Amino acid sequence: MTLSGLEIFKMLPKKNCGECGVPTCLAFAMKLAAGQAEIDACPYVTDEVKEELAEAAAPPIRTVEIGSGDMALKVGGELVMYRHEKTFFNPCGIALYLSDELSLNEVEEKINAFKKASFERVGQILQADLFALHYQSGDEEKYLSLVDTVSKTGFPLILMCEDLGVLKKAAEKIKENRPLLYAANKDNFSDFASLAKELSLPLVVKGESLEEVSELTEKIKGLGIKDVVIDPGSRSLSQTFKNLVLVRRAAIEKKMRSLGYPVIAFPCFESSDEYLQFSHTATYITKYGGIVVVSEISPEFSYPLFVLRQNIYTDPQRPMQVEEKVYSIGTPSENSPFLVTVNFSLTYFIVSSEIESSKVPTWLGVVDTEGLSVLTAWSAGKLTPEKVAEFVKKQNVLEKINHKKIVIPGFVAQMKGALEDELPDFEIIVGPREAAEIPTFLRNWSVN
């Protein structure tokens, strides 16, 4: 049973030290009860109390890890209904559906397309996350061969197989890669749970309704299985959307632990039309899908979905940032221009892209402004003459250029005089106000 904030408070050391990031133990207890903090944040709680508080302190939606190593995918672990309340933590996984009825050439073509649909945007790699392998042929060897082939990619796998014997052989072959087993239902849950427990693997629980899923997860939890993904069984946009919202609301607002798990959705089974499937996938990314399984991965369809997911799962309270340092774009020399900008990721990648398009090798100094854009950083006192001067000295800029000219963004032209006072040996040049003007500016660059 979930404990109240006061019940948790009685079990805490009551030091009010603030080391957990919350001013008082009572406030910390309330956050634990609401699923908005983790018990490990308190350095003074004993192991016995931690174990006792594990359920109360756990996120309303359990975090489930699929795969292993650098390719592992975490889903769930969410605390809020709406992103602006705090943030969303674990981006939903996008899985490519593969049937064992496909030929080897077809499988390899889909794997190659999957790998090619990889993009870099604002410092992050955007790509699909895992494969869902479906046992449909009735040929055990064919399915095991498919598992062998796809497992070599290193991406996590979902093993979709109703035959327990075949599923066990497939899972044992790749258990180190921690595949997700699909799926336990009201008829086979005991056997599937035993297999998941034996191999320490996560398990999908499938029902014909949320009520049935809730009953099954309670039974499976009683069998010792904690890492669960749920499939409410819906195969239409309207019903799947409804189920995703109901599960999230039940877990977070109603504290229903029996539905406190990530949800898997199957746009690939809801429509054969690629455009409809795309819209279904976008809907589930936006509204609480834990894993979304699609039938095709192609650049033209994948990229907008990846960007949508990136935007949804970017913390609105923490701007995306790049590292503070001097970047070389092209092969700059001691006579190349030296531009200064901020470390807001979007600003950096727009500016660096314009520099690249100019074909002029350039040094780009990125100042740490805590992820704020140029004007915002200037207004907030994060981009100041003193800070730029400190950056220039710390980065030993004179080891990279000999012309002693520094170009600042045109939007902070008012910084020029004060910066010249801070850096008397340098000439401060006011650059373009808009990034689109950078190529023309650089092509007209002269050190004289």
Notes on the protein architecture:
The protein folds into three domains: 5-57, 3-methyladenine DNA Glycosylase II, Chain A, domain 3 (Orthogonal Bundle), CATH 1.10.15; 64-312, Dihydropteroate synthase-like (TIM Barrel), CATH 3.20.20.20; 325-443, Rossmann fold (3-Layer(aba) Sandwich). The protein is an alpha/beta fold. The chain starts with a helix and ends in a 5-residue tail after the last helix. The chain has 17 helices and 17 strands. Helix 15 crosses helix 16. The mean pLDDT is 92. It has helices spanning 5-11, 25-33, 47-57, 104-116, 140-151, 164-173, 189-199, 210-222, 237-252, 267-270, 274-286, 299-312, 345-358, 374-379, 385-394, 416-422, 438-443, and strands at residues 64-66, 73-75, 93-99, 119-121, 124-126, 130-134, 157-160, 180-184, 203-206, 228-231, 264-265, 291-294, 325-329, 338-342, 362-367, 405-408, 427-430. Helix content is 39%, strand content 16%. The strands form five sheets. Strands 10-9-8-7-6-3-12-11 form an eight-stranded parallel beta sheet. A three-stranded mixed beta sheet has the order 13-15-14, with helices on both faces. A two-stranded antiparallel sheet has the order 1-2. The radius of gyration is 27 Å and the shape is globular.
